[in-house]
Design brief:
Helices cover about 25% and strands about 20% of the residues. It has about 280 residues and is α+β, with helices and mostly antiparallel strands. The strands form 3 sheets. Strands 2-9-5-4-3 form a 5-stranded mixed sheet, with helices on both faces. A 4-stranded antiparallel sheet has the order 1-7-8-6. A two-stranded antiparallel ribbon has the order 10-11. Strand 4 and strand 5 form a beta hairpin. The radius of gyration is 20 Å and the shape is globular.
Amino acid sequence: MPELPEVETMRRGVAAVTGSRIVRVERPACRKRPIAISPRIDVLNRRAEGQQIVSVDRIGKRVVLRLERGDALVIEPRMTGLVLLVGPPTTQHLRLRIQLSGGSTRELLFWDRRGLGTVRLLMAREFDAFYGPDRMGPDALVIDLKTLQSRLHRSRRAIKVALLDQRALAGIGNLYASEILHRAMIDPRRRCTGLNRGEWQRLHDAIREVLESAVQCEGSTLADGTYRNALNEAGGYQNHHRVYDRANELCLSCGEGVITRIVQAQRSTFYCRICQRRTAAR
């Protein structure tokens, strides 16, 4: 968390900075765990100062500010980061301030409670080295069925674990993998090699449906309340979760199964044993 829907919501929320010019990039005083910023802040500021933001993009779970001289400022929220246009939830966890001119907003902020996020200013060749096709799979929001199947069907990993592999497809994390597999009626423990054509089709449909619905709802704000959109407002997709964090509760789809929690690759997985039978799907 945040995953693709939350980061896409951030991207859309701050898209208004396109056309603005960077006046200054600064690292506010913070006594908390420092985030990784590369290059160091004085060098980053010197390189970015005066450049116009030509677009706001997203790659996987990262917001990317494209600058006029070909540089890319990549903000990776990781567990608790937020990209904001308004005052942050707390001042002590503010990690980066980008002062702007020539547009509708005066500043862009990066806030991170746990300090796991990163900020990188990369030249074009560096960007390709970090996030090119050898490092990142196709975006999960736009991947087609043929590409999805070709990238995963030979893997002997459990399908839930494979969906988290950002080299295979970019953007899906733990929360949405559980929701997607429940929508597709596929047991998360099934190996990729064992899925049939109909199951791949259902999986592809579920990826698109779940992610698009979550983006429309501006992401999921969980019980800790950390995730917020660019205007510091909660998302709404948590109200539509079918299995995530609902262990021991009745399945909302079949009304018979009880949601089960298991651990896969050190991450919690939630599923319904009735809706998601382990045998080949009907």
